[in-house]
Amino acid sequence: MARTPPPPAPQRLVERLRRLLADEQVAREDELLARGVSRSGVRCRMRSAVARAADALGYLVGATARAVDRRLETLGLAPPPLDPPPEVRDDLRAFFSHTIDPSDVMIRRGHVPAVPHRRAFALPGLIYLGADAGVVRPRGEGVGRPRATPTLVHELVHVWQGRVIGPRYVVIALVEQARQGRRAYDWRAVLDGASHDRAAHDRAAHDRASHDRAPRAFPVEAHAQLVSEAYARRYGFTPATAPAGPSRELRAVEEALAGLRAGRAPTLPGRAV
User: Fold this and answer.
1) Which terminus of the chain has fewer Cβ atoms in its 10 Å neighbourhood, N or C?
2) In degrees, to the nearest 5, what angle opens at C-alpha 112 toward C-alphas 238 and 227?
3) Whole-model pTM?
4) What's the CA gap between 271 and 62, in Å, rounded?
5) Quick one: DSSP state of residue 237?
6) For the chain, first and last CA: distance in Å?
7) Which helix (DSSP H) or strand (DSSP E) does residue 136 occupy?
8) Please, which pLDDT band fits residue 235 given cuts at 50, 70 and 90?
């Protein structure tokens, strides 16, 4: 039941988004410098401006997708909606600690008609599951207990991201997929990179220990993948393995789930949750 990462987003679209944001950033930076704002102040204001532009673009993409979905439904072309059983909804509410309610999201079992990539995706208020069933009975769960699939949980995390950090997550996810491909989903590589950066900048043992205790920030796709894998282990989709000792991966999972349930998203500038 592991989620297969989708192919990279079209490079042309991502480059167009990048140029649009870069042009706005340069123009605004020149204006602020001309008004005597310090360079640190310019950087702070520019991050806010880029985030607002990404939010506006993400909102537009989501609103357009929902309008297209309604039109497809009117024409009888939309795939059938998924109405999770009450016990599945209860499980999801408990897992997300009521920071997300699947009843508030249009979930469809299937793919967008005439689109070649039959992949799952999430936009604000809308999930298409592609080839994924959405609700199954995992092995080892005994008889009669349906569960949401890890793919559905992954997409619900994106809906959560949209509500916590804003619709910019749509733009961020497109850029991540175009630049990194499958590596965008590798949250363990994010941990490896963070450990390497900390060691390169600070060799003091006590400082490294304090950094290890700090909450980690993940790009949006890696964050969603981490949460869906934690869900898969908890509910029997993948075998649970007991770590031999203290595990930075286990700590990262615990921190991510605590933030998820608290509605908290520690951020890296412009690209992470």
Assistant:
1) N
2) 25
3) 0.76
4) 18
5) S
6) 25
7) strand 135-136
8) confident
**Where does 75-140 have alpha helices with state H?**
86-95
3-state SS assignment for residue 132: coil
CB 224 within 8 A of CB 202: no
**Average pLDDT score, the chain:** 77
Query: DSSP assignment, residue 126?
Result: E
Length of the chain: 273
Cα distances from 257 to residues 7, 86, 161, 262, in angstroms, run 27, 23, 13, 8
Question: In b/e form, how buried is each residue of 147-185, taking b as 16+ CB within 10 angstroms?
Answer: bbbbbbbbbbbbbbbbbbbbbbbbbbbbbbbbebeeebb
With contact defined as beta carbons under 8 Å apart, do 123 and 66 qualify?
yes
**Exposure string over 42-63, b if 16+ CB within 10 A, otherwise e:** beeebeebbbebbbebbbebbe
Q: Is-contact 220 272, C-beta < 8 A?
A: yes
Q: What does the pLDDT look like over 37-77, one tens digit per residue? A: 555 555 666 677 778 888 899 999 999 999 999 999 999 99
Please, which pLDDT band fits residue 209 given cuts at 50, 70 and 90?
very low
Nearest residue to 265 via CA among 222, 217, 224, 225: 217
Radius of gyration of the chain (CA): 20
pLDDT tens digits along 125-158: 999 999 999 999 876 555 568 999 999 999 999 9
